[in-house]
């Protein structure tokens, strides 16, 4: 539960960001309390620009005045800085080989699922969206095997409890759920990837996840606004 | 120096790969011996396909029969699996915040320097090469600040000794040195990025680096061959 140091944690985020949701999930799972600062990305704050001068992007976690940037870097920081302080199980397992398997699949999500997902939102026509959508579905198929490898028949990528890969993928579950309403097909479909579909239901039922996951309807609205903005920019 | 377990280490690599060189550097710095298996990427081996079924790519480190894939995942595995076994200093520092700073810059190299570098080699005309070349130079400029932040005036990103970021960037130094011969401009130029230029000289003088860094002339020949092949493919 919340300890003395928690007051020294600040998170600069933005509601629509799946990367920010990863960090919220990790903080929630660890039971760490923090001050949340919602950023207006059209008018970036002095605090954001000073804290993340290289990328000028969210999320940024500030711990005792020191900024940590990049969602996966922040997750590992939370895991290491608050290790053994009674704040819930480690995200990464102790065994070096199992850690490497978790890192492999987290990198897979970052390299093979996130970039086409991003292109789907930036596409300005259905035609432009076709190829990245195909790549997303292929990545989800491969990830079904990743879940099998990581979980070894247990409920989560992390085994009996939620781990690193769960959080990395978990940040995007509201977008996964919004996919059908946005693009007319389920991204995670029990008929095609039954393990992932069951995982998603289970994950969303966790108290720590319920507390921070984005509202799916609000994500749909936010995504529609983004897509319309990109389309308008392209037609100008 | 080499211990009993070292005979159980195999590295599947390819001479031209900067990612493989990262792993060779880490193994060399740790004084670990291993069996090296050169892969023919035009005719991939059963061992590679079985060891890295997701990406079918090098490097793969096999430790006691278990494969570890992705160069940054492998580097962290080596650091953790051989920690405290008298095999040289840790690549990542002990302090969680300093670890996060090193991971941030390693991710920066992967996200901002490697992709345009890749596009420079895939480009089939000088015109196509212009934009990614510009991005590479911008990334190197930013990295000059990263070296300043990480090293705090000491010789390496890792401080007094070579660390994680040194190895991640170090894998590419032969390509950095080949840049002038290939594209007519120094990538790391003492006039523009004096800290990085001095770092590169210092890094290349390390015995552990000398032992494994690719020969620059051979890299130039290999890169010319790649570029010609891509250009021929595009004109067919």
Mean pLDDT of chain A: 94
The largest β sheet of chain A comes out as: 4 strands, mixed
Strand order of the largest sheet of chain A: 2-1-3-4
Which range does the strand content of chain A fall in?
5-15%
- CATH architectural type of the largest domain in chain A: Up-down Bundle
Which runs of chain A of at least 5 residues are low in confidence (pLDDT < 50)?
A: 1-6
Q: What's the total number of strands of chain A?
A: 4
Largest interface: A-B, 24 and 24 residues
- Assembly state: homodimer
State the shape of chain A: globular
CATH fold name of the largest domain in chain A: Glutathione S-transferase Yfyf (Class Pi), Chain A, domain 2
Describe the structure.
2 copies of one chain form a homodimer. Chain A is of the alpha+beta class. Chain A is built from 10 helices and 4 strands, in the order E-H-E-H-E-E-H-H-H-H-H-H-H-H. Chain A is globular. The first copy, chain A, starts with 8 loop residues before the first strand and ends with a helix. The N terminus of chain A is likely disordered.
Set down the secondary structure blueprint.
The structure is a homodimer of 236-residue chains.
Chain A: E1 9-13, H1 18-30, E2 35-38, H2 46-51, E3 60-63, E4 66-69, H3 71-81, H4 96-122, H5 126-151, H6 164-170, H7 173-183, H8 194-204, H9 207-210, H10 216-235
Parallel strand pairs in A: 1-2
Antiparallel strand pairs in A: 1-3, 3-4
Helix pairs in contact in A: 1-3, 1-6, 4-5, 4-6, 7-10
